[in-house]
Amino acid sequence: QVQLVESGGGLAQPGGSLRLSCAASGFTFSSSAMSWARQAPGKGLEWVSGIGSASRTKYYTNSVKGRFTISRDNAKNTLYLQMNSLKPEDMAQYYCVKGWGVTPDRGQGTQVTVSS
């Protein structure tokens, strides 16, 4: 079955950076679009970014454009999210998602805390 395991979360200061990773297994990763989503305390799940199977297409929600970069390594079955210029409002649980948008196929998440 689909297994997605996120890592790389932690504490960052405002303006700092973190790089999230997602190890995928149980499906043909190289054929699947992938996304990142997040959920802040007390809020719903929000789609953040998506990438096509061959990395030719990438999309971002407006609030992270120019700060976050999604990428993937199909040889390693791994999805990444480079997060720069972090803001307090980026603080959330981040999920790796199989497919475009927010789907049921997602991992357990990794916590990102942005605080000075």
What does this structure look like?
- The chain is mainly beta.
- Helices cover 0% and strands 48% of the residues.
- It has a six-stranded mixed beta sheet with strand order 2-10-9-4-5-6, with no helix packed on it.
- A hairpin with a 4-residue loop joins β7 (68-73) and β8 (78-83).
Helix content: under 10%
Terminal CA distance: 40 Å
Order of helices and strands: EEEEEEEEEE
Structural class: mainly beta
Q: What proportion of the residues form beta strands (DSSP E)?
A: over 45%
Specify the overall morphology.
globular
Neighbour order of strands in the largest sheet? 2-10-9-4-5-6
Largest sheet: 6 strands, mixed
Number of strands: 10
How many individual helices? 0
Average of per-residue pLDDT values: 97
Rg computed from alpha carbons, rounded to a whole number of angstroms: 13 Å
As residue ranges, the low-confidence spans are none
